[in-house]
Amino acid sequence: MFDIRRRVLNHDVLFGSFLNLGSALTAEIVAMAGFDFVLIDLEHGAGFEAHLLGQLQAIAHTGAAPIVRVESLDRPRFHRVLDLGAQGIMVPHVDTPEMAKQAVAAMRYPPTGVRGVAMMNRACGFGTTFNEYVKTSSQTLLGIMQIESPEAVENAEAIAEVDGVDVLFVGPLDLSHSLGITGQFDHPKFIEAVRKVARAAEHTGKMSGILMPKPEFFATCFGMGFRFLPCNSDGGMLNAAARNLLKSLQTAKDQALALSDLKPQS
Hints:
Blueprint: H1 4-9, E1 14-19, H2 24-32, E2 37-41, H3 52-59, E3 65-69, H4 75-83, E4 88-91, H5 97-107, H6 130-140, E5 142-147, H7 150-154, H8 156-160, E6 167-170, H9 172-178, H10 188-203, E7 207-210, H11 218-224, E8 228-233, H12 234-262
Helix pairs in contact: 2-3
């Protein structure tokens, strides 16, 4: 159904959004908007593993590929997410190629990995597509490694060279914080680190990605070579919409009151 890894390997420009509210309804709303992928955030989001199934089911009828950011390199986290039907895994704080290999191994069945084999789960169609899924999952599941520290930046090319690593993904806030320049995304130190990650992906034939806070950042990110581009989140969009609505209402009220003050008193 989803061809997200093929599109990544083809270096298509892909747009997505994070899902951090843990809500199946907002997940469905965002996915129905037409994004190429959505990223369910189990690392920092409000939802837990128990909320994941509902979100995946809500996304299933849309064209958006469901990707999940896990909390850690713990193998069970990968198994649970993949068995429920995620089409890709984002792994935070991957600092070395050894960590990347550990992540990829958790996504793959033996003999090339350590993922436990089970038949009665959603990913395998509750047994009906088991053989096909086991045979093809290593070619269809997307592996995204987050580059969020100076060590990871230095090792970016070695991480990208690991078979099964498809995307090097910059976490801007974590990376800037680890560089001692929290939130200073225009700082030369941050820009050079980001460019180095993009170059590492390009040199190894992999894709690079970065979180864009606003669409206005697209031209800059695209110019650096980034093609895997989530923007904002369901929580961020709701927050902005609510505040913009109230601002518009306050403006309308102020204009109406000003007009009423201009009217002559009877």
